[in-house]
Amino acid sequence: PETGCLSIVVLGASGDLAKKKTFPALYHLFLQGFLPSEEVHIFGYARTKISDDELRNRIRGYLITDKSASTEHLDNVTKFLELVKYVSGSYDSEEGFQLLDKEIAKHELSKNSVEGSSRRLFYLALPPSVYPSVCKMIRHNCMNKSDLGGWTRIVVEKPFGKDLESAEQLSSQIGQLFDEPQIYRIDHYLGKELVQNLLVLRFANRFFLPLWNRDNIDNVQIVFREDFGTEGRGGYFDEYGIIRDIIQNHLLQVLCLVAMEKPVSLKPEHIRDEKVKVLQSVLPIKDEEVVLGQYEAYRDDPTVPDHSNTPTFATVVLRIHNERWEGVPFILKAGKALNSRKAEIRVQFKDVPGDIFKCMASDLQNSGKKQGRNEFVIRLQPSEAMYMKLTVKQPGLEMLTVQSELDLSYRQRYQGVTIPEAYERLILDTIRGDQQHFVRRDELKAAWEIFTPLLHRIDDGEKKPLPYKPGSRGPEAADELLAKAGYVQTHGY
Ligand code: BG6
């Protein structure tokens, strides 16, 4: 790995993302030795005029939330904060960025033990409306000093636009200033342990190779549930809605990894080539395969307009038109203010042909119902796990069957292993220059192409959300759509 002077600039240093995700992730990387103090400096940049110490104190508050924090933790936070400096300036002023450049250069000169390197990472923890101007300012004022070598990279977060056209516009504005290998578009779902595991699971296990197709799989569900509402983010959320907030990015990225063909190698470009092909094979969404919902009380949020039509829940069926998946519905479902917090993938297999055990399930006897289906579940969170639902003989004298599970629960199997936070891993990837878990420009375009027509119908008020009770499963129509798509509720689940 490259060594040398590394400057990490967090733009939007006093915002919500920086506070909840970026600084804690940097702190954890520091703790694990990935940000050695002889090489690294962290700069916070924002409009507010505060001192270095004020920023440090704020960050301290994000990192020490527990009153009974150990002295070791307190000491570590202090050591980490010694790496942090603050520069204030606006997002479109040359002076601010010139000052920032000067500070970075000073740091690069002072680290004489790692002479000759200028690695600069700009993390835009900002709303996308300022991306073009910030990128321009960085490009004009803050690039790494080429005589010292190194690199300049920028990290950007969703929402990358609101539809195909605005996303493409944003991409081309940024694309005129930076080359694709310098741009890291974060989708934090790609940093989750079990999402990263999908590639290994699918392509390193003989079990799955012959089964992973339309001959064996009946339907796939990718589900995101949250048991809280917009919680102070109503203003942002109402402009975007659940499809842009969760489905078009996080769930679609997961779908790519579940559905893609085997890449030629693990090179980021090979992986992303396959993901793009999946996205380009998705057929236009049918109106009758969409259910939208909005939880009652959503509009009570003072930041949400009284007549908002924004969905806080959606179930959308996607169909992939290729040899492997023709006829297999991929059901993407996401909702806020539901009955639980969970994200999972459910791969449901077809019924066993010529089933000789019909009605022998211990709890189904004489009911005329079928055996439960095999189902492979990957729970991304909480409590990461993978389990396979299968039918076994119920232990005992009678020849009865029962649904059981082969269960790999991470907490049990990997006791004592800390699963890294998604942001931690992704920031480390940006430092290492690995773009595998980042969204490429053509991927982003293909993702917007899928959802833009539906989003426009919603924005125009042609498609309206159904009300649902907070704390429920969402609108009943969503369960009906699920059943129509072929999902069979597994017995005992
Ligand atoms: C974000 C969304 O991208 O993901 C939020 O903007 C959502 O609305 C969050 O709450 C969920 O992330 P996680 O990692 O908690 O599933």
β content, as a range?
Answer: 15-25%
Number of helices: 13
**Element string (H = helix, E = strand):** EHEHHEHEHEHEHEHHEEEEEEEHHHEH
Secondary structure: number of strands: 15
Small molecules (ligands, ions, cofactors) in the structure: 6-O-phosphono-beta-D-glucopyranose
Give the end-to-end Cα distance, rounded to a whole number of Å.
47 Å
The rough form would be described as globular
Helix-strand makeup class: alpha/beta
Computed CA radius of gyration, to the nearest angstrom: 25 Å
Could you describe the largest sheet, including whether it forms a barrel? 9 strands, mixed
Strand order of the largest sheet: 14-13-12-11-7-10-9-8-15
Mean pLDDT: 93
Contiguous low-pLDDT stretches (5 residues minimum) are none
Work out the helicity level.
25-40%
Features of the shown structure:
binds 6-O-phosphono-beta-D-glucopyranose, six-stranded parallel beta sheet, about 500 residues, G6P_DH_AS, G6P_DH_C, about 20% strand, alpha/beta, nine-stranded mixed beta sheet, about 35% helix
Provide a short characterization of the protein structure.
Helices cover 35% and strands 20% of the residues.
Q: What does it look like?
A:
It is an enzyme of class 1 (oxidoreductase). This protein has 493 residues and is an alpha/beta fold. Helices cover 35% and strands 20% of the residues. The chain contains 13 helices and 15 strands. The strands form two sheets. A nine-stranded mixed β-sheet has the order 14-13-12-11-7-10-9-8-15, sandwiched between helices. A six-stranded parallel β-sheet has the order 3-2-1-4-5-6, sandwiched between helices. Helix 1 links the parallel strand 1 and strand 2. The longest helix is centred in the middle third of the chain and has 26 residues. The model has no long low-confidence stretch (mean pLDDT 93). It binds 6-O-phosphono-beta-D-glucopyranose. The site of 6-O-phosphono-beta-D-glucopyranose has 4 residues, from loops.
